[in-house]
Fold this protein.
Amino acid sequence: MRWTVVRFWATLGAGCAGDPLPLDGAWALTGTDVRGVLRATSGRGCSDGRAEIGLWGPGFGTPGIVGAGLVEEAPGEVWAYFPLRTGVGEGEAALRIEGTAGRLPLGARPAEHDVHLRLEQRVPDAAELESISTENRTRLDAAEAAWQAGAFTLRDGDALVGEIRLRGPDAAPLVAVYDETWLSAGLVEADRADEGADLLLAFPVEPNLGGEKALLRINVPTGAVVVPTGAVPDAMDRRLRLVAGEVPGDVRAARVRTAREAARQTEHTQLLRLLPQLAGAARRSDGVCMAPAAVDPVWPLLLAGYSTRIVSDGDGCLVEVEASPEQHGRRFRGAVGTTGLVEGSGALGG
């Protein structure tokens, strides 16, 4: 797998037709867990100017100090184009430089996985750069071995919430997820797509209200995993981490049990908070109990995945609810009045 952030190396050109390079000098590059150097020597003509860069982060790095193409895209805005290695191979990256600030976009969606850098015009210590480069090479060798093995866990903070198995180009990847928000039927096959430096995996999951598939956007250079809520990055997107490793079967089974119980408790709490409100609001002044949509159009949305009926019960209304179909996060069955669950009306699914 090769990935491209902006454009291919073949499109680059700088310092030709008598134009000097847009930068001249040496800069130390620093960011969160990222170090590097950019050096540019200006001149006249295609063969006189020279630029090179070394840049190393947790999941990416240049293979040593490499040549870079510099292009002044707009006054005061310079782009450096250079090869960058990740755990799945080498691709072409682009670093935007404006004043003393740099931005390296690593994600396919705008600004989602940008690396922000500071530029300080000085010559970094050569021994320190060599040490950083060597350490980065060792780390990327391990990352490459992990991607070849293809076994990864999904983490929410430190919590294990799923796993991925990549089985090569001729077999569909396998994905399993298990926490209170969603649950797959074990390891399920996923549809795969590559988008820049992002790996996209779409797979069946519960709860499923309309036949849709869940989606993971895995950013290879950073190891970040996004569960998107839409086509563009959003603050509501869920963010996970990809960590190399396998999940033993007994550990997976325990996590599934925990996920089911957590989902049951959350569903119980939420419905017994919402349904008494609906039961109270459903009764009209003439004593008729209205359907949820007649009370407020938002109620059918809040109760998606349930079969719901409101019936009269003496001087009040009862909301009869049953999960349809029964699935993860949708297992409740019972009747609820203004004071809560009616005894003997039903039971919670497990």
Remarks:
- The helical segments are 126-149, 249-282, 292-295, 298-302.
- The first helix runs from residue 126 to 149.
- The longest strand covers residues 77-86.
